[in-house]
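Subject: design request, 104 residues
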């Protein structure tokens, strides 16, 4: 997987960059020319789920562009707390749950 300079604030690992518009267009063209979504994904060495997602998005919205990336704050920054307090621990847990439920 390709790396970028963005860092996942939860794990500290580099986050992958979105695939290029050119690659997305080539996959869509292959599917429109008769290849299955999975065959096209294999041809361009991407996951089958990405190929399925892009073609579904194209069918539903007319676009296969990557969705804009959300900037994620660290739990401490989201809470605005000072390290070590009981309030910070509660806030950090709230932020982690909110992220798990896709609220942040």
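Subject: RE: design request

Done. Sequence follows.
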């Amino acid at each position: 997987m390709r790396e970028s300079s963005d860092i996942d604030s939860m794990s500290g690992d580099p986050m992958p960059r979105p695939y290029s518009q050119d690659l997305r267009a080539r996959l869509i063209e292959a599917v429109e020319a008769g290849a299955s979504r999975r065959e096209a994904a294999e041809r361009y060495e991407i996951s089958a789920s990405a190929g399925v997602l892009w073609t579904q998005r194209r069918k539903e919205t007319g676009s296969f562009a990557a969705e804009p990336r959300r900037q994620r704050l660290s739990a401490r920054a989201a809470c605005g707390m000072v390290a070590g307090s009981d309030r910070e621990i509660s806030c950090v847990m709230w932020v982690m749950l909110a992220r798990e439920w896709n609220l942040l």
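Residues 1-9 have pLDDT under 50 and may be disordered.
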